[in-house]
Amino acid sequence: MIIQGKDGSLVLFYNNKLISGFPLGYHKYERYKTQSENLILDSLRKNKTMKDQINMYKYFCDLIYERKINNQRISGLDHQKFCACLLSLVRLKVIDEDDAVFIAPRKKGKRGKKFIQYL
User: Fold this and answer.
1) N or C terminus of the chain with fewer C-beta within 10 Å?
2) pTM of the complete model
3) Taking 60 as the threshold, does the pLDDT of residue 115 lie above it?
């Protein structure tokens, strides 16, 4: 399900499959990118090599992808972790941003057109 915020939605894809969506409004796209950068920095502080980080992020993304394919439940926390892992892979230039991230503008409401008749 894609949740719409006041500024639109951040929609995430993995292997050409829609995985999750996040509202944009109070939380901007820059904040989601900052979370991924903090994840990378924390892993480096814990002496994880870049190769280990990439493998770990890919493994988690593959795990969530398999759960989505098999119609299994994915918790909200797992969606947030997936967002951080996917954006970390984008930041490390493993995945192209255009293939994984789509920023959807706010959907306009359905309003009937008013007919004004002039005499």
Assistant:
1) C
2) 0.82
3) no
